[in-house]
Amino acid sequence: MDLHALIRAEAPLAEQQRALTEPVLTALVDHGVHRLIAPKRYGGAELGLPQWSREVQELSRADASTGWTAMTTTISSSLAWYLPVDAADEVFGDPRALIAGTAAPLGKAVETDGGYRVTGRWGWGSAVTHASWVIGGTFTPVGPRLAVYPRSDVTIHDTWHAAGLRATSSHEFSLTDAFLPSRRAVWPIGSTPGIEGPITVFPYFSFLAAGVASVCLGVARRAIDEIEALAVEKTPQYAATRLAEQTGVQVELALMEARLSSATAFLHDTLSVAWDHALNGEAAPDPVKARLRLACSFASGEATDVTQKAFAAGGGSSVFESSALQRCLRDAHVAAQHTVVSRRMLETYSMLKLGLGPDMTRF
């Protein structure tokens, strides 16, 4: 069974147990999915970000929770570029190790010999239950840092009881008075990376926005797949023709395809432009970053609307747990709630275009 077929087959069980199944986790690692954008030194594929986005979309088309987990763990593995080489060797030396966590600087660090003592609690820890090392954004005396802790230091709290993306295991996690060596804390903006590469030139905080948008697009593509398959089989109660033969459904399906294809193309175009700057060793100018984030938020919104329309077109058939359409609906809405694709991002784009000087520090 190929990877995507395995993911589809295991998705209902993963949904029930609120965690990816062991066969899927093993297959993801076997295929190197968790290191798609990591350095080759650590078993990574060093994919360009436009190609990575397409991979995330296809994994999410098979199952949103799996695509989300692949997206977040690959972003976490990108820290291998930024850490000092001795720290990266420690964390990423095992090519099968999963790295997960949260960037928000909710840890509080107190300086001590060789590093810090840290206490904190974080939310949205997608895949931390499967991780060997956990990233927790930490505020240190010298500013915010992405800090990496061994899994043994971390306590996971079973808090992920959510409407969608149920199998991502995005629980809260905490640590208390844990020692953090200075070498395992880095800020990816304005610092010298341990390993040079195009990815270290790309605007760091746009990784996650592009990833979330890619998951949303993949879910919407699956929703269209599902309604197309249902339409040729289903004749609604009290109707004389199949859904496929009804003009209203035909028009709706065409509009769904046009909207999803347009949003996908917009994301690919803007991501490619920003990536070309990185390949040339150039920092992306603010207009490029703003347009990319516009595309990310637009893609997430369009994908959610398309998924809603596919669900509605399925009628009563969509509401049952046996229907992938109801899972697509829930997953798309939860993914699109992420702050990095919020509609507030649209304000930043317009403010820049209108010369109003928005804050671009986290773009």
Automatic annotation (TrEMBL):
Residues of the Acyl-CoA dehydrogenase/oxidase N-terminal domain: 15-73
Keywords assigned: Oxidoreductase
InterPro entries per UniProt: Acyl-CoA_DH_C, Acyl-CoA_Oxase/DH_mid-dom_sf, AcylCo_DH-like_C, AcylCoA_DH/ox_N, AcylCoA_DH/ox_N_sf, AcylCoA_DH/oxidase_NM_dom_sf
Gene Ontology molecular-function annotations: acyl-CoA dehydrogenase activity; flavin adenine dinucleotide binding
Domain Acyl-CoA dehydrogenase C-terminal residues, every copy: 211-342
Membrane-crossing residue ranges in chain numbering: none
PANTHER family, per the entry: ACYL-COA DEHYDROGENASE (PTHR43884), ACYL-COA DEHYDROGENASE YDBM-RELATED (PTHR43884:SF25)
Descriptive protein name: Acyl-CoA dehydrogenase
